[in-house]
């Protein structure tokens, strides 16, 4: 399909009345890379996407695609394609008609348009549905039609606005996999917005977490998942454990008075610290005669399907959540004394209290 180009955003700002929707956003997306703008409603992510598409005119900053500023170019000539959460299909047109609509508007010759429509339908695996109307399709099939319509114009940049939000969970996960495979196959530069951190992780090469119109943290999906840069990012991305901690005289981080091997406090910080760690990263074992680690007691268990969630009480009224993959049918019962191991490379030390 179409060639992709690197995207650069510099100092992007947009105000609506007294509300600063976007405030000095700077980002870059490499050729063939997918960037996810992640954050809650009102954080500015959709305004950034609409500015790229040309639906919003920023107050300041620049947006360049392949080195060329997009700001003076009208939306229909920017070489971008937008995929919306709600498919916006024409109900009176067939699947093929919907997919080829943009080509007809661009006056692409009929033979060429037919070839490109057929190719787009094959890419999203719905070529057998070309003659059906949208009302005859499932939600997932309609989403594939919308995706084929975006791809058929051979865009330089694909924009995804909460693209899978209208699908139920099972279908959403299936489409996430399909969309990721397609992105990699085509090497198409993509920017998406979502409030779903799982979707951002599985669909992107880079994530920018937004807050109040600014970038709170940008990094790879694993960096954002495992090492949040602030309490806000940790909370928004669902880190299960934000544990108050202190600095020892040797700069080792301590939780509930127990030093965490290999975990050092950042230089220049106060004694008030927080350790962020995912429940799946915490190790748990039976308490031995001379336990080394955090000694606690299981107070709650919950089956999550493929995993079991434990809540472990530590001294000082601390509660640690632990997720263990199910192995057989054995479940540790409340009241069991256990030792928790917090791997230093899976912990993030944040300054201040959670």
Compressed to H and E, one letter per element, the order equals: EEEHEEEHHHEHEHEEHHEEEEEEEEEE
Mean pLDDT: 89
N-C termini distance: 47 Å
Name the CATH architecture of the largest domain: 3-Layer(aba) Sandwich
Structural class: alpha+beta
Which radius of gyration do the C-alpha atoms yield? 24 Å
CATH level 4 superfamily of the largest domain: P-loop containing nucleotide triphosphate hydrolases
- Provide the domain count: 2
Descriptive keywords:
single chain; 354 residues; alpha+beta; Rossmann fold; OB fold (Dihydrolipoamide Acetyltransferase, E2P); 6-stranded mixed beta sheet; 5-stranded antiparallel beta sheet; 8 helices; 20 strands; 24% helix
Tell me about this structure:
It is a single chain. By secondary structure, the protein is an alpha+beta fold. The chain has 2 domains: 7-229, 3-Layer(aba) Sandwich (Rossmann fold), CATH 3.40.50; 239-351, Beta Barrel (OB fold (Dihydrolipoamide Acetyltransferase, E2P)), CATH 2.40.50. The chain is 24% helix and 34% strand. The strands form 4 sheets. It has a 6-stranded mixed β-sheet, sandwiched between helices. A hairpin with a 3-residue loop joins β17 and β18. The mean pLDDT is 89.
């Amino acid at each position: 399909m179409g060639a992709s180009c690197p995207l650069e955003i510099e100092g992007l700002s947009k105000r609506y009345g007294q509300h600063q929707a976007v405030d000095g956003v700077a980002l870059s997306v490499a050729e063939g890379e997918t960037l996810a703008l992640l954050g809650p409603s009102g954080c500015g992510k959709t305004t950034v996407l609409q500015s790229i598409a040309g639906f919003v005119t920023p107050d300041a900053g620049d947006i360049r695609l392949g080195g060329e500023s997009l700001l003076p170019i009208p939306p229909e000539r920017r070489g971008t394609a937008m995929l919306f959460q709600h498919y916006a299909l024409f109900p009176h047109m067939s699947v093929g008609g919907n997919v080829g609509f943009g080509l007809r508007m661009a006056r692409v010759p009929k033979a060429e348009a037919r070839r490109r429509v057929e190719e787009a339908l094959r890419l999203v695996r719905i070529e057998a549905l070309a003659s059906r109307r949208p009302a005859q399709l499932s939600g997932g099939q309609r989403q594939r039609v919308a995706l084929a319509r975006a791809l058929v114009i051979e865009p330089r940049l694909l924009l995804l606005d909460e693209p899978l939000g209208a699908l139920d969970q099972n279908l959403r996960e299936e489409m996430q996999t399909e969309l990721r495979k397609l992105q990699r196959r085509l090497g198409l530069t993509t920017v998406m917005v979502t409030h779903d951190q799982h979707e951002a992780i599985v669909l992107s090469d880079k994530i920018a977490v937004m807050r109040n119109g600014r970038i709170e943290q940008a990094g790879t999906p694993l960096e954002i998942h495992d090492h949040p840069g602030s309490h806000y990012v940790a909370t928004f991305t669902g880190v299960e454990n934000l544990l108050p901690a202190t600095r020892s005289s040797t700069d080792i981080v301590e939780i509930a008075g127990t030093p965490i091997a290999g975990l050092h406090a950042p230089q220049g910080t106060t004694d008030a610290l927080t350790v962020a760690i995912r429940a799946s990263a915490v190790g748990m074992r039976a308490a031995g005669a001379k336990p080394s680690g955090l000694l606690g007691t299981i107070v709650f268990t919950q089956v999550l399907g493929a995993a079991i969630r434990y809540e472990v009480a530590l001294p000082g009224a601390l509660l640690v959540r632990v997720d263990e993959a199910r192995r057989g049918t054995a479940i540790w019962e409340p009241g069991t004394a256990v030792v928790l191991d917090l791997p230093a490379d899976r912990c993030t030390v944040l300054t201040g209290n959670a």
